[in-house]
Amino acid sequence: MPLYTYRPKTPQTGCSSCSKTLEVFQKFSDPPLETCPDCGNPLIKFMHAVPTCQDRSDKKLLSDDNLKKHGFKKLVNRGGGKFDEVV
User: Fold this and answer.
1) Alpha helices in 17-76 (DSSP H)
2) Which residues contact 86 (CB under 8 A, 6 or more apart)?
3) Would you state the pLDDT for residue 24?
4) Which residues are registered as beta bridge partners of 6?
5) Model-level pTM?
């Protein structure tokens, strides 16, 4: 669920809950809050990016074992235009 931040349209009239920001976890299908639940001050909605945790590091993808498993060859430059096959 995304984290929505609400800010008051008029910060001077907000209560202690909404005077700066009010953060709420809501579904995409939930209607946005229009007023502060505590004081009734009108709010404006801001959406934060949803964090994703995917480890797609090149270290795992280009490891010798992974390359060998998928049928690739790894060549290492020996110098002078010569290459050694590692995998």
Assistant:
1) 58-61, 64-69
2) 64, 74, 75, 76
3) 84
4) 22, 45
5) 0.49
Task: Classify the phi-psi angles of 25: left when phi > 0, otherwise alpha if psi is within -120 to 50, otherwise beta.
Answer: beta
Neighbours of 15 (CB within 10 A): 14
Give the mean pLDDT of 60-69.
86
Q: CB–CB of 43/29 below 8 Å?
A: no
Q: Which residue, among 55, 26, 56, 64, has the nearest Cα to 43 in the 3D structure?
A: 26
Measured CA to CA, the distance from residue 18 to residue 11 in angstroms comes to 8
Tell me the pLDDT tens digit for each residue of 10-55.
877 778 877 788 888 888 888 888 888 888 888 888 766 766 776 6
Q: For position 46, what pLDDT does the model report?
A: 79
Tell me how far apart the alpha carbons of residues 51 and 58 are, in angstroms, rounded to a whole number. 20
